[in-house]
Amino acid sequence: MTFSLLARDEATGRLGLATATHAYGVGPVADHTRAGVGVVATQSFVEVSYGPRGLDLIERGIPAHEALDKLVADDPDADIRQVAYLDTAGGTAHHTGARCVPSCGGLADGPVVAIGNMLDNEGVLAAVVGAYRSAPGDLADRLLAGLAAGDEAGGDVRGRMSAALRVVAGERPGESWQGTLVDLRVDVDPDPVGRLRESLRFHRAYGVFFESVFKPGLVTGAEPVLGDELEKALAGLADTQQDLGDDLEPTVWRGVLLLRAGRVDEGAALIARGIDARPQFARFVDGLARVGILPAGSAEILRKAGR
């Protein structure tokens, strides 16, 4: 039905979980994470409570294997469940019930564990773990490399439909809404792992974009940002523009920052380029002017750009 890969990055302490399946919307059902605590995959004939209940036990200081043993012992249908746990110490545990549909099983290698059922063949999980171990990049990259290798080795015997990826901090955050670093899902697609990789690229691009635009005071402060802070934001938006291609919103925001900084000719030219590509940006620019973010509306900016 599904295969999952859980891993702890030994350099950063971050925890991650990636899952692929031939079923709709696997992420909210199978994948459970809590920053500074652990990650859980629950699959086969799913009992979702293995996720939050297991994380509650781990958060209370119970090692991953003891937490899983307790919940399996309390489950009258444990023979149809498949579950894996990973805690912040790198401790792993996995359970494959006797009535899970073959090919099925689990494979652990240090702070890395893969589980799967309804797989095409017995080599899928070894391919998943091997690819994770040998792949370059950060934790998210390596988790996706593991999923892709699992697909290539046969994957879910029924085919492909959905996939999900999460990465959380290894340390407990100051607030409950913090600590989730990556949370992506593809609910239905003929190549969900490929789409997930594309989504990760956009996630990273927009991470730079948000830092370059929505950092407090950057475009909303009473005074314009200048100097090194301005140049860093402009460079970040330029990098984002390269990733986004024809979507010129980062270019428009570069123009906004430049106009606010008094570099009128440069800023007007960039905003005009955005409006040329998407005329609706004119209304967006007018809205920014109405709330005081820009000193002028689209008509005056286009005039300054020689339009």
TrEMBL record:
Listed PANTHER family: BLL2871 PROTEIN
InterPro entries, per the entry: DUF1028, Ntn_hydrolases_N
Pfam family, one: DUF1028
Ranges in coiled-coil conformation: none
Protein name: DUF1028 domain-containing protein
